[in-house]
């Protein structure tokens, strides 16, 4: 089992950069593929990015490709989301998630563990 805690969300202006962190508890962090999702009021939680247990493979939603980068530090049991060229439409609560799925997946139901979320607000 793993517990996830996100941090780094805040109010920024359009065009700014921001890095989110997700700290995981437990000694089995390397067993999980990790991902970031985001959600705005009245909408379903949507996939943003995912990274394999080794860090060697990543996959992104089209809306963030080229602007966001997911990475992980297995020694520190931490996953990151570097967000550049932020847009107002990136405003959302960002959630970190862990999956035991064998392959990378964008489906939220395949993720076993979730953090509590961190708010990112991008002003125009």
Task: Report on the architecture of this protein.
With 124 residues, the chain is mainly β. The strands form 2 sheets. Strands 2, 4, 5, 6, 9, 10 and 11 form a 7-stranded mixed β-sheet that branches. It has a 4-stranded antiparallel β-sheet with strand order 1-3-8-7, with no helix packed on it. The protein is globular and about 40 Å long. Helix content is 0%, strand content 47%. The protein has strands at 4-7, 11-13, 18-24, 33-39, 46-51, 58-60, 68-73, 78-83, 92-99, 113-114, 118-123.
What is the averaged pLDDT score?
96
Tally of DSSP β-strands:
11
How many H/I helices?
0
Which sheet architecture does the biggest sheet show? 7 strands, mixed
Strand content: over 45%
Shape: globular
**Structural class estimated from helices and strands:** mainly beta
Name the helicity range: under 10%
List SSEs in N-to-C order: EEEEEEEEEEE
Regions with little confidence, pLDDT below 50 for 5+ residues: none
Oligomer: single chain
Specify Rg, calculated over alpha carbons. Answer: 13 Å
Distance between the termini: 40 Å
Q: Which helices and strands, and how do they pair?
A:
Layout: E1 4-7, E2 11-13, E3 18-24, E4 33-39, E5 46-51, E6 58-60, E7 68-73, E8 78-83, E9 92-99, E10 113-114, E11 118-123
Parallel strand pairs: 2-11
Antiparallel strand pairs: 1-3, 3-8, 4-5, 4-9, 5-6, 7-8, 9-10, 9-11
Keywords, please?
124 residues, mainly beta, 7-stranded mixed beta sheet, 0% helix
